[in-house]
Every structure is written in structure tokens, then in C-alpha cells.
Design brief:
The protein is an all-alpha fold. It has helices spanning 5-34, 63-87, 94-117. Helix 2 (63-87) runs antiparallel to helix 3 (94-117).
């Protein structure tokens, strides 16, 4: 007797529904039975260093820092791709050389664009 092929799909869907809902249900039951009903003064007290904050907690950063960081990450990833290519350079076919050349040209284009937009200038 061969089983119905839809049985496996039903089992898979059941596991897909139960697997995430079971931990959520257990967490809800844990909170219901073990959480204090109302926050007490210790719950609202200052923690970590014990110093009350002064002023606004939000600090404004210039977006140039983020652009500089993203450009650094792009060229850092470039180094990760270039090192294996440089190690195996003599054993690679011409197609690999052309693909890494296209990769480098795209990165150089990105560097020229960032430089022309002034992303790399610190004095503004």
C-alpha cells in the first residue's frame, strides 16, 4: 500500500506551523506564570553604570561617516576577492582574467564616482 503523496505535504506544513508557534506559546506561558504583575521601583531604576542620563540620548552623526564606512567595506571585500585570484593567476584561463578585469573596472568606476561626489573629502 503506497501512502498518499499529500500526506507528506500536510506533515511538512504542520511541522512548519507548530515549530515556530510552540516556543512562542511556551514563552507566553512562562511570562504569564513567572512575571511580576506590576513593575516595581527596582524595575524602573537606573541600571548598568547607575548614572542618570542628562540631555537627549540621540546624537546626530554626519552621513559622510556612513558613506566612508560603506566605501571602505566595498574595497575591503575587493581585497578578499583579489587575493585568491592573485594566488592562482598563472593557472587560470583567459575568461577568468577578463572577469576579474571587469570586476576591477566596476570598482574603479565606483571609486571615481565617490571621489567626484566628494564622499572622500573630510574638510567640508
Amino acid at each position: 500500500m503506497t501512502p498518499n503523496p499529500y500526506v507528506f505535504i500536510v506533515i511538512f506544513c504542520g511541522v512548519a506551523i507548530v515549530f515556530p508557534l510552540l516556543p512562542l506559546g511556551l514563552a507566553w506561558l512562562w511570562r504569564k506564570f513567572f512575571q511580576p504583575p506590576k513593575p516595581v521601583s527596582e524595575k524602573n531604576a537606573t541600571y548598568e553604570c547607575g548614572v542618570e542620563s542628562i540631555g537627549d540620548a540621540q546624537v546626530q552623526f554626519r552621513s559622510q561617516y556612513y558613506l566612508y564606512c560603506i566605501i571602505f567595506l566595498i574595497f575591503d571585500v575587493e581585497a578578499i576577492f583579489l587575493v585568491p585570484f592573485a594566488v592562482a593567476f598563472t593557472g587560470l584561463p583567459v575568461g577568468a582574467f577578463l572577469s576579474i578585469l571587469v570586476f576591477l573596472l566596476l570598482l574603479i568606476e565606483g571609486l571615481v564616482w565617490a571621489w567626484s561626489k566628494g564622499c572622500l573629502n573630510w574638510a567640508r
